[in-house]
Amino acid sequence: MFKTIADPADCEVRSVIRFLNAKNVKPAEIHRQLAEICGENVMTDGMVRKWVRQFNNGSTNVHDEARSGRPSVVDHGLVAKVNEKMRENSRFTIRMLCDEFPQISKTVLPENVTNRLNYRKR
Questions:
Q1: Cβ within 8 Å of residue 115, ≥6 positions away
Q2: Contacts of 94 (CB under 8 A, 6+ apart)
Q3: Model-level pTM?
């Protein structure tokens, strides 16, 4: 069995995608390997395909682009706490999570639940 990597940095995941893409590994196989080592929530198959396209188009940057505006208060620790709450009660609503985590804005919380934690509506 492989060792697992819990909560890898985004640039680490993108570096792995860039490396495996350079070895002509298919995007679906890259996603499978990432999920095997980092867990199912590491990155969606669609995002892996997006990064493969970018690298095939000549991009070499694996780091986040600088953004203007207010910095986010949502860090990996806070996302882990939201994930823990979601696992405790799978019937949590976004409104209930907003009450539980008032430091996260009502517009940012749903984005993190769906994009970073890969939870979807049923």
A1: none
A2: 106, 109, 110, 113
A3: 0.56
C-alpha to C-alpha distance for 29 and 37, rounded to whole angstroms: 13
Find out whether 28 and 45 touch, Cβ atoms under 8 Å.
yes
> What are 89-121's pLDDT values in tens digits?
878 788 888 888 888 887 888 877 777 777 766
Q: In Å, how far are 15, 47, 80, 81, 117 from 40, measured between CA atoms?
A: 18, 13, 14, 17, 9
CA atoms within 13 A on the CB side of 63: 3
In angstroms, the CA 92 to CA 80 distance is 15
Q: What is the pLDDT of residues 25-34, one digit of tens each?
A: 999 999 999 9
